[in-house]
Amino acid sequence: MQKRGLILNRTLARSATGLVALSLLLAGCGTQNTTTPPAGNTPTTPSNASFKVGLVTDVGGLNDHSFNHLAYVGLQAAEAKYGISGSVVQSHQTSDYVTNLTNFAQAGDNLVIAVGYLMDSAVQSVSKKFPKTKFLIIDDAITNRPNVASALFNTQECGYLVGVMSGLMEKQKGIPQINNKNTVGTIGGMQIPPVESYMAGFVAGVKKVDPSANVLVGWANSFTDPATGEAIANQQISNGADIVFPVAGATGNGAITAAKQHNVFAIGVDANQNYLAPQTVMTSALKAVDVATETVIGQALHHQFKSGIVTFDLKNKGVGYAPPIKAVPASIIAQVNHYASLIESGKITPPSTLS
User: Fold this and answer.
1) Are residues 232 and 166 part of one domain?
2) Which residues form the ABC transporter substrate-binding protein PnrA-like domain (predicted)?
3) What is the sign of the dihedral through the CA atoms of 47, 62, 66 and 344?
4) For labelling, which of 41, 160, 170, 287 has a CA lying 20 to 30 Å from the CA of 215?
């Protein structure tokens, strides 16, 4: 433990979180996201140890296998690339947000990162009290504070693509996981914009290629309850769903468990979650929180920090989808990539809210 309260030793945290850092691929346009140097080159890390970055997780914590984890992966990448000093504190309840953000600001951290839409009011409050400290909030738009940058992701775009894949898979014959009920399901952690945009894109993508499909929508009202995620997925599966798409942090891990138990497909979210169930998670809708985190850290370090909104989308590889498993035919992948090009060109604009 370091001196600042619940701050984790970054070596210990790295051992628990390194797996997804190796597996995150932005495959929507066939692009791999990696910070691994070419063979034979040994990078020299500059020393910027006096530049301190504090990262505050949402209540989902580092083990959500999702956006909190990815933010930490981005912090790790910035430590390796720039030699900055990074620390993490996990929030266990929403009342921790202000305290955790304040502790980093009081300790003199140059940049404080808040992971998640639910931290809006906390960031508004703390950034006002510490105007000389720079802040980054993930998944929320704060535009009235000159010391706050906001990273937003057009996840309706990658949601749409995995929806297209799901709709096309529903038409496939001879795949054991696909039944004849033409039904898929999606589960939201909480009904907030960053979650709903994924789900809205997913529903639209399914309906685009399979208008007669039945899309079941469920809400868990929690990002930290795998048992509820599993229960909702079980209900959707019993109602005919053979593909489930949870957008629910750690709650969604329970939905993946249910899909595996019932031998149907699941779709991961934020990170490539195939490693959780390699034969079950047919793809993942990706949100490059790690890239956004590392990018803004670099900007702050080099005096290029800009307040306001930075948007990550298909065009700048900020969202995408993970390489599908072998059960997904190449012909379907080709069609999904075609729809990706239509989104990038502006010919298709996926909705960000559920109708």
Assistant:
1) yes
2) 53-322
3) negative
4) 287
